[in-house]
Write a structure and sequence with these properties.
Distance between the termini: 52 Å
Order of helices and strands: EEEEHEHHHHHH
Low-confidence stretches: none
Mean pLDDT: 85
Number of helices: 7
Structural class: alpha+beta
Radius of gyration: 30 Å
Helix content: 40-55%
Largest sheet: 5 strands, antiparallel
Number of strands: 5
Number of domains: 2
Length: about 200
């Protein structure tokens, strides 16, 4: 289980958060997409009841509660806090604080996971095989490099506009230089400017 008031992410599909009295488990983990919401399925159960002799209904208070909600919806969170306090016979203030802490911890965890994924994706680079390198070098050393490049652009699906497509390709490849060039495509609607740019 988690250390007191800390989230335990050792199992991303069953993230836990435990206080002295209550254990919360996020079943199924959290989605990394859609930072505008934090939908979870949460299981709440009392693990160490402070005042056993004050229970009105011990049988129901011993049962776990399972609920799905958006932790960014204050209405849903407040409703769940009241339900937990009523059903499990615990303090509503403590439960509200727990839910707020869980939300903050899950936000940090999700942002950390997203940053790690972005780093992993940026590190991945296409590595050419020796055969691919030889083919590329041979192509770059050809006598009519611009004509060969223009022919390849044509084979990729851009038919016609031979001069314009070559100029655009040269300008687009300047992005690799210290001073990249820019281009604006002008023309009537529906003449294929977007297709040419792609």
């Amino acid at each position: 289980m988690a250390t007191e008031n800390k989230i335990d992410i050792s199992n991303p599909e069953a993230i836990t958060y435990q206080t002295e009295e209550i254990a919360y488990t996020i079943l199924g983990g959290i989605r990394m997409e859609g930072l505008d919401r934090l939908r979870v399925t949460i299981k709440i159960e009392v693990v160490n009841r402070k005042f056993r002799h004050y229970l009105n209904n011990p049988d129901i208070a011993a049962l776990a509660i399972r609920q799905n909600l958006d932790l960014y919806s204050i209405t849903q969170v407040e409703k769940l806090a009241r339900l937990i306090a009523d059903r499990l016979e615990v303090g509503v203030t403590a439960v509200s604080k727990d839910l707020s802490d869980i939300t903050g911890e899950l936000e940090r965890y999700r942002l950390q996971q997203i940053e790690e994924r972005q780093k992993d994706e940026s590190v991945r680079q296409k590595v050419l095989t020796e055969a691919e390198k030889e083919t590329a070098i041979k192509f770059l050393q050809s006598k009519n490099l611009l004509q060969a490049t223009n022919d390849m652009i044509g084979r990729s699906g851009i038919v016609g506009e031979e001069l314009n497509r070559l100029i655009m390709w040269l300008i687009y490849t300047s992005r690799k230089t210290a001073k990249p060039l820019h281009i604006i495509s002008m023309g009537s609607s529906g003449t294929g400017k977007s297709h040419l740019q792609e």
